[in-house]
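tool_call: predict_structure(chain=1)
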Amino acid sequence: MLKLFYHPSPNPVKVALYLEETHTPYEIIVTDTRKGDQHKPEFRAINPNGKTPALVDGDITVFDSNAIMLYLGEKIGQFMPAKTPKAHAELYSWLMFIATGIGPYCGQAVHFKHFAPEPKEYAVNRYDFEAWRHWLLIEERLSKQPYMLSEYGILDMSVWGWARVIPFVLGEGAWDKLPSVKRLLDEINAKPSAQAVEAIKTKYTFKTEVDDESRKNLFPSNERLKK
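tool_result:
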């Protein structure tokens, strides 16, 4: 059985959604990043980058959520575009756009808005601007078609993982400027598969508070400032 090393954050949830959508049996291995599980040697042996998610499939290990989505899509053969150069060019382009743009800029926007010490005005402005710029490109595409590609697939699941947290990233009024993203989010949220993913965080115990221990585990770079 597949083992998914999991924390209920945007990147792991999209992998869980794919597994639920394809009715693929999998085991959740709780990897609580606020408790520092991602830094343990046994996890680093699976993902040397020390981030969730990671996947173990027999003697195969895969890390980075986008690599996992492609691995599963190719292995299971569902929710992938037609096997043509054009379709795969679109898939790879937009999937890497999410990997290198949506994820990092949203993550940094959240960090500087909600967790970083002052002064942070410059950083907040930069990352909020870039997060908005990337989401507005997704909005533009979804305003012209129902899904990121011609049919619902792994790319939409990847968008869903991050779209769930848009109000926390961009502010409560963000949906006014992203109605097409909200449409896709609501459509996927209504699926039993998505509801099963959301239930994982209540089925297992994950630390919810961000205290000194959590900050040390989530933002280890800050520790060298104390030296």
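agent: The two ends are 44 Å apart (CA to CA). Proceeding to next step.
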